[in-house]
Amino acid sequence: MTAVEVKALTIPRLSRRVRAVVLTVHIVMSVGWLGLDGALVALEVTGLSTVHPAVRTGIAAATGVIACWVLVPVVFFALVSGLVLALFTSWGLVRYWWVLAKCGLAAVLTVTGLLFLLPALPQILGGGGAPVGMPTLIGRSGALVLLLSATGLSVVKPWGKTPHGREVLRKRPPRPGQQK
Hints:
Blueprint: H1 16-49, H2 53-88, H3 97-125, H4 134-156, H5 163-171
Helix pairs in contact: 1-2, 1-4, 2-3, 3-4
């Protein structure tokens, strides 16, 4: 049996200008996701606390429009820009624990969001709006907490490097004038 030499995959880095654009898009879309989720929670609370059927109908219609036509594209661009930053910058996708945690949170939020949205999609697209209810409020409130946690991870950047990240750092040649 012969050994096969596997050459490390070299991923090109983004230029400074492109990185700044992608980072700006990522921050704007992520903050938008957080704000939209907060607005949907506020609409749910209002819908659950009103006794007026017309208000509930209006809130259901507004929630459906926001969830389908605004939130979905915002989430998509937040996810894509986050993956581009993770894959094509020095942060890497698997070099830091906080990046992995944010990716995990984004995946959980996206999958659960779609699981909430897809069953109501025919009703929403038919003009009936998104149903207002306690399970939806609890789900959206949980999503809001996870989005706030992801924001905190982006700011604090806890836990350091993963074992892969430490290995990459160990194998990197020293910079000129730096001891290894």
